[in-house]
Design brief:
Layout lengths: L2 H27 L10 H14 L4 E7 L2 H8 L1 H19 L3 E7 L2 E6 L7 H8 L3 E3 L2 E3 L3 E7 L8 H18 L3 E4 L2
Parallel strand pairs: 6-7
Antiparallel strand pairs: 1-3, 1-6, 2-3, 4-5
Organism: Streptomyces prasinopilosus
Pfam family, one: GGDEF
InterPro entries: Biofilm_reg_signaling, GGDEF_dom, Nucleotide_cyclase, Rev_trsase/Diguanyl_cyclase
Length: 183
């Protein structure tokens, strides 16, 4: 190869590698390292896109019940396994019709294109399946609050999250198990 061409290609190759590394870091920053779900920033961008395109979209907030007790009793590795299992179950439920994310701790979020077409009972049942861990069956439970965007005066994500949060806390206060639509 001509030395002048090689000299010109070396910086271009360096910039290409640098760009690839930056793109990977950005993608990694938008994914939770434990669960692989979107972080708040990554999920928010996808959720806003979904609610703009799908007027029947709904936002769900999911909070694991008794998570601290599970962590304190069985250890942090069991807690991590519970978070991973919850993320997997929520991701599977969303499928191609929504996007799941992890807000932090034991709080998860999802947006689906149409809650009427999704089986909320199936999600609740999946989130309450025991977790096989270290030869044991650990109980899992979650409270789910939902908000249909169509029920809001102005369908914006922040209001939907607030309504789903209120619905989720109503579930926690009522039974600490199940799901509830905002009203």
């Amino acid at each position: 190869m001509d030395p002048q061409i090689a000299a010109a290609l070396v910086p271009l190759l360096g910039w290409a590698v640098h760009g690839s590394v930056l793109a990977h870091r950005l993608a990694s920053a938008r994914r939770d390292p434990l669960t692989g779900l979107h972080t708040r920033a990554g999920w928010t961008a996808r959720a806003e896109h979904c609610i703009r395109r799908h007027p029947a979209a709904a936002v769900l907030l999911v909070d694991l019940d008794h998570f601290k007790a599970l962590n304190d009793t069985h250890g942090h590795a069991a807690g991590d396994a519970a978070l991973i299992a919850t993320a997997d179950r929520l991701r599977a439920w969303c499928g191609r019709n929504g996007t799941a994310g992890r807000l932090g701790g034991d709080e998860f979020v999802a947006v689906v294109q149409d809650l009427a077409a999704a089986d909320l009972g199936a999600l609740t049942a999946a989130l309450h399946q025991p977790l096989p861990y270290a030869g044991r069956s650990l109980p899992l439970a979650a409270s789910v609050g939902t908000c249909r965007l169509a029920e809001l005066p102005v369908p914006v994500l922040t209001d939907a999250l607030a309504a789903a949060d209120a619905a989720m806390y109503a579930v926690k206060g009522r039974s600490r198990r199940g799901s509830r639509l905002s009203r």
